[in-house]
Structures are given as structure tokens and as C-alpha cells.
Amino acid sequence: MNTDFYEVYRFTKVTKILTLSIRQFAIFTLIVFAFFGIFNQYNKPVQQIGIYIGIVFSTILIVKLLIFYLLKRFRSTLGGNFRNVVIFGKNRKTRQLKDFFVYNPDYGYKFKALFDVSEKSNELEQHLEYIIEQEIDEIYCSIDKLSQKQLDEIIAFADNNLKVVKFLPDSREIYAKRLNYQYYGYIPILSLRSIPIDEPINQLIKRVFDLFVSTFVILFLLSWLTPILAILIKLESKGPVFFKQKRNGLDYKEFYCYKFRSMKPNPTADIHQVKRNDNRITQIGKVIRKTSIDELPQFINVFRGEMSVVGPRPHMVSHTHMYAERIDKFMVRHFIKPGITGLAQVSGYRGEVESKNDIINRVRHDIFYLENWSILLDLKIILLTIINAIKGEEKAY
């Protein structure tokens, strides 16, 4: 079984190290208690076993982080532990990669050259000679700037000269892909994307987390806040305390999403999105929308399993149909449950969609989230959401 617990690279993020360490801690804890159970060693106090597990886990985590940060410092200040790199093909992505290498010395890459390769074979041969002379370690190739013949030649050269070759996807691709590589017998198969939440253990972790948070909010916040807001909402305008609206969730299924009512009852609530200085919003509505308190009843949706605490924000059904027809890859968001908050929202793409660029960036962040989910990413998004709610956001209206 490949656990990847110790596969930490120079480009690995700290959140990845922490996520792997938590998984390692959980498995180690099960193994330790299983050992004592199998060999009938329960004469030792549970507290003593817990201290032992804590010490081991803390030591491993500290060593991992220490090595990670010391190597970063070693690369950036002393210039050691580096790898020489070259890039084949000139376009926007390769220029961005060049800038990444140049302005992030702590990753340990030394950029040497960016080659604009034409169809002339002697040019490629000269570049390959340069790789040998300059002792280049890694070769990065832009797929759409090289012919198949050139790619084959570079791959063969890398294999025969012990060089690492990596590829930048076609520049026509808008969204990053995390291709899932599997074997059906001896046949290699690539899946378009890998979704971590599809794994049963991750589904269990996320669901337990959602139940814990939603139960806490319902019991200790909504239980006393709802009666107060109900009185204030009713005093200002006639109508229900809660506003419910059909949204699209997991697998495009419709469900009723709940909010505290922040507008006067009107026939266009399910059609027109709220705009700045919208005259439909009540005075109490302005307050609860500015602080995002109006979203709190959605923890009931979370408890019922229709939503998650963190995930792509669900849109009105009419808007979902519209965006699905106009925005490429919009439907990918429905591979996971929608959330009360999400990566797009804490990255500046919440509220009213004022331009096509807003919804494109929202979709881009949502796809990144579903392809890179971790419980630590959820915690980070929740923390940023709380900070933004306290500070107040420009588009919270």
C-alpha cells in the first residue's frame, strides 16, 4: 500500500504535509491500540498510551516541518540543494513558469534557458547539447509548442541521459487538470480528474466534520438567534422569517436552500439576483446580509446532508441553467455538494455576478477546490470566511 506519508518534495505545500501527517497519526493510533488488544497488553493506562502516541506523532511532524523549512532556507540563502532547469516553447504558461523559477529561489530551481523551438532539427540538437554542457537536471516542455517528433526526441534524450522531463499542458486548456492514472490489466487509463472527496474515507471525514459543525451552530447559535431575528424581521415587513429557494446541488439535484429573509416578499426573488442598493432589501436585511448572518439557516441544509459547510456556492436554478449553457465547465461544480462558503467566495468572487469574468473565475476556483480538497483547506476557508465577515466585504450587499 502506497501511503505517500514521506513523499515531500520541494514543491509540496505545507497543508499537504499536515494532511498526510494527520492521516499517518490516525493509522498509527489504530495500529498501536490494535497491538495492545491483540497481545492483551491493556494493563498499561490508556493515558500513558496516549502520551506515547502524542510524543511519536509530534516528533515525526516536527522533523518533517523542520527538514522542509531548513531546506527552503538552505536553497534561498546559500543556493544549495538546487536543480538546473530549461524550458522548451515560448507562450504565456512557459513565461509564467520562468517567473516562478526566478522569483521563488526557496523552491530550489535555477532557471537557465527558455528555448523557442522551430521545426529546424539542428536547433533542437544545439539545445540538447546545451543541456549536457550546463548539467541541466530537469526539462520542461510546452506540449502545444512542440511537434510530436520533437517531443519524442526530447523524451528519448532525457531517458538516455538521466534527465527528468516534465510537460506543461496545452495552452488552450483553461483549467488545471489532475489526471488520474490507473491500469486496467496492463492497459494504462487516464481519467480527466481525480476528486479526493470521492474516496470513502474522505467522504466520511467531511460528513462527520459537517455534522459536528452544523450541530454546534444549530444548538448554540441558531437556537437563540432565530427568535430575536424573527421578531425584527416580522416587525419591519410582513412575510415568513425564512426564505427558501430551489438550488442545484450534488449531481445537479434540486433542493430547497434556506436563509433568513432579508427582502420584502416580491415575485422576482427567484429570477433577479440582488444588486447594489437593491430597494427590495429591508433595513434588517442590510445588516444580516452585510455580516452574512442571513446564510446561517443553511446549516440546517448541511445537517440534512443537502449541503456542506465548504463547497461551491449553489446558484438559483434559473441561473444554473443559464450559466451551464454559456460557461465552459460550469457543471463540474456539481460533482460535490454545494457549500455555505467556498474557495471562490474567500478569493473575492462572492455575491453579484457583474461580469462574465466573475463567473469564470468562480468556476475556476470551485474546480481547483474539488480537485485539491483536504480538511485543512476547509478549515482555512472557514477561518477566512469568519475574518471577512468581521471585517465586512465590499460585495456583501
Automatic annotation (TrEMBL):
Membrane topology: Multi-pass membrane protein
Pfam families: Bac_transf (PF02397)
Membrane-spanning segments: 20-39, 51-71, 211-233
Localization terms from the record: Membrane
InterPro entries with a match to the protein in the record: Bact_transf, EPS_sugar_tfrase
Residue ranges constituting the Bacterial sugar transferase domain according to the UniProt record: 206-390
Keyword terms, alphabetized: Membrane, Transferase, Transmembrane, Transmembrane helix
Family per record: Belongs to the bacterial sugar transferase family.
Protein name: Undecaprenyl-phosphate glucose phosphotransferase
Organism: Gangjinia marincola
